[in-house]
Amino acid sequence: MQIGMRVKVPFGNRNKPIDGYVIDITETCDVPIDKVKPIHSLYEDYPLFSSEMLALADWMKDKYYTTLASCLNCILPPGLGAKEKTWENSKASGDLPTNQIPPLTEEQVEVVDNIVKRLEAGDTQPVLIHGVTGSGKTEVYMRAIAKVLEMGKQAIVLVPEIALTSQTVAVFTKRFGNSAAVTHSRLTAKERLSQWQRARAGQINVMIGPRSAVFTPFERLGIIIIDEEHEHTYRSENTPKFDTRQVAEKRSQLTGALLVMGSATPSLESYFRAESKEISLLTMHNRVNGMFPEVDIIDMRRELATGNTSIFGRAFQDEMANTLEQGQQVILFLNRRGHSSFMSCRRCGHVMGCDNCHVNLTYHAVDQRLLCHYCGRVSQIPKICPACDAPFMRYFGLGTQKIEEEVARLFPSITALRMDMDTTKGKSGHAKILNVFKKGEAQVLIGTQMIAKGLDFPNVTLVGIVAADLSLFSGDFRAAEHTFQLLTQVSGRAGRAEQKGRVYIQTYNPENYSISLAKDANYKSFYKHEIILRRTMEYPPYSHIFMILFTGPDERTLIMALHKLLAIMQYCNKKGLFEFLGPAPAFVSRVKKQFRWRILVKCSKTDDPEGILKQFVQYCLGKLKENDPLKGINISITLNPMSLE
User: Fold this and answer.
1) Which of 100, 443, 446, 514 could cysteine-pair with 483, CB 3.0–4.6 Å?
2) Which residues does 467 contact at the CB level (< 8 Å), separation at least 6?
3) CATH for 294-341+397-533?
4) pLDDT digit string (tens) for 228-255?
């Protein structure tokens, strides 16, 4: 018997056999000896968890307010119940392939040298690489991994989207051969288990994949790389609701591995940490090919005023026709992130917003009202614009199918591909579409955020951002940040080879700072502007926010329970350390006949806001449960959620 083993144990009065894990071995016991039951059997003759992984699971349990069992189950791959292949422990064998390693730019040399020195010195302070799109971050990652492998250690490479794994894997296997492997949720359980076993046995040394790859059971971990570190998909929406970046940093602390994060548009929290010298900052300001795309903003208010009712501006239509005539390719990006909608004026671009929370009001079609999803404020839909008195207040909504239809109408002879949740189902859904586009068998690629980053197509010279406003007014305090990131990232898909790229951003709000600064990919100016707003409104990183989400089949019961909780929290807030927003419905207010309501709790006025906030919320929930059984209500609490869905 060893710590980390999976066992079957008798449970309850009927001794029903259930799965368990050995997390410690002791000679003494806190319960009477006659209550102790023997272990029924072992599943494997080896531990599934190393001491480091057990420590990581224990940390996750406290960090994400969940059970140890849920964390352990999260770490293990699916398919453990199936018959497993036995792998002998051995190092990955075979010489690494030599197809051509490109020369480094001066900036790449500086960054690679810095990382290599850290690896050699055992320096484990996390590193943030702020490199513009096309600056060659991937090559930097591969040079760092080559050094790690040379040191006899192993590497994990995290990517935010499954859509990116096929292209990333192709690049890495070309460099590292069979030493590199991939894991993600579209693989079968048997395939994922096989990759886990190979990693545990030392058959591979580089693992690539989204969130779950952070738990790869490498014994000689030397580096963890998080590409596009700003992406919201690194935050799990399932229990445990972990942040991959935080887990990766904790794992690097436990193993002595170096954590390297990279992005052209770092999250404000990460850049704030770099500015505070908590993590190291390395920068790359220039593209490898030396050419940035030319970016134009199309004011859709003027298009409408001149009689153009198409979803494409006239200048963009002309440029698209020229690009296709020359045999080059086009990416059309719909800036639709999340599920919320908003009301705006088609003449002046004014959007109805909440003055209290500095977010827009979300349009609810069912009951024809505008709602703030932070404080719960309700407003009626105005008949005329409060800014310009025009009778053009409209619900803003657009889908990829509508764009596909418009492309077919304007350019009937070309082939367009649509890449969204409906067209990418199945294990290889993303890869099939991307391969067809890369081969030139289609001229236009239409998609949402899954095509906004990381993809590299040499023949793409034109990018059209159809509706920049859709994420700008998503009703989230991070809306401006998300918009700047998406626009900058998708603009970076144009002109990545020899031919100069061109980008058109279509918007009803061309004066908005997140759009005007994205035009020039001016991250530093955006950061300075946005961080002032965050400090003024006491939003992260200047505060911590706890989201308390109640779900259940009866909406009235949820609302009553949350108001009881609010009363308890207001009573217990004697020192005025906390601010409460809500109760209010979640952005997605009903899923599978389950209503979803929540309260937000903010804290910024203490030395340890996270710890005090956690204690406060858990204490108040405990008091609520003493007086109310909360029958039929599920409770979920999340610290600093990436969205309020």
Assistant:
1) 514
2) 311, 334, 335, 336, 396, 398, 506, 507
3) 3.40.50.300
4) 999 888 998 888 889 999 999 999 999 9
